[in-house]
Task: inverse folding
């Protein structure tokens, strides 16, 4: 075997009978100390915290060395994944119903309005356009543009539409389930003006197809080629 490995018989026996090096002995000693720390904290520490503990105990050892030895020993920190659940939020977003399930178009104005929010680029910056459409006339009765998508944008749009049209109580407003329409302040405005709130079904953007179509046409015909330099 020595012949095939290219080593002498004396060299082989010298290697086999050689005592462990100082580093090997130190590694063995460190493994004992690492195991003590690991057991004391019931496996909650990974190599960084084990290394820090050994340093505090007076051991001069590098962090990489501790990580290597722990890997050789198969020691892994026990980590519990912490998750935060908000079951109330899920129920909140799922609440509300679609009052326009038949999809019928009203026979008079100020009976049903639809609203939505989309994004547009103005001066190389993204803006959010909020709009309200009268479903009977297909006219935009209120709109607002802002750099942030918040309830304030949709509230401002609603206020503009109400001021312009002065609808009677019983008007229905249909929107998607976005938080900008579900906020408490927005809901207060709807209630104060006697407006019924209809919501698209979860995941059914076709329930608000008229606004989706309007925004598609707006972007296709006005936003692709021109480059607006301001809020025109």
Result:
């Amino acid at each position: 075997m020595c012949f095939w490995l290219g080593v002498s018989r004396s060299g082989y026996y010298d290697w086999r009978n050689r005592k462990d090096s100082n580093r090997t002995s130190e590694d063995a000693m460190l493994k004992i100390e690492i195991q003590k720390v690991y057991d004391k904290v019931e496996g909650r520490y990974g190599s960084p915290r084990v290394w820090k503990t050994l340093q505090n105990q007076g051991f001069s050892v590098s962090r990489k060395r501790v990580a290597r030895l722990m890997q050789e020993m198969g020691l892994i920190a026990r980590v519990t994944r912490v998750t935060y659940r908000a079951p109330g939020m899920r129920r909140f977003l799922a609440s509300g119903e679609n009052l326009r399930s038949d999809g019928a178009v009203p026979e008079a104005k100020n009976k049903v309005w639809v609203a939505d929010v989309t994004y547009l680029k103005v001066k190389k910056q993204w803006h959010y356009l909020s709009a309200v459409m009268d479903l009977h006339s297909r006219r935009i009765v209120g709109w607002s543009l802002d750099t942030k998508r918040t309830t304030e944008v949709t509230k401002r749009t609603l206020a503009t539409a109400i001021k312009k049209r002065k609808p009677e109580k019983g008007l229905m407003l249909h929107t998607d389930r976005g938080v900008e329409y579900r906020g408490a302040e927005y809901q207060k405005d709807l209630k104060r003006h006697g407006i019924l709130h209809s919501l698209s079904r979860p995941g059914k953007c076709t329930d608000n197809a008229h606004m989706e179509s309007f925004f598609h046409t707006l972007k296709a015909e006005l936003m692709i080629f021109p480059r607006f330099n301001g809020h025109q």
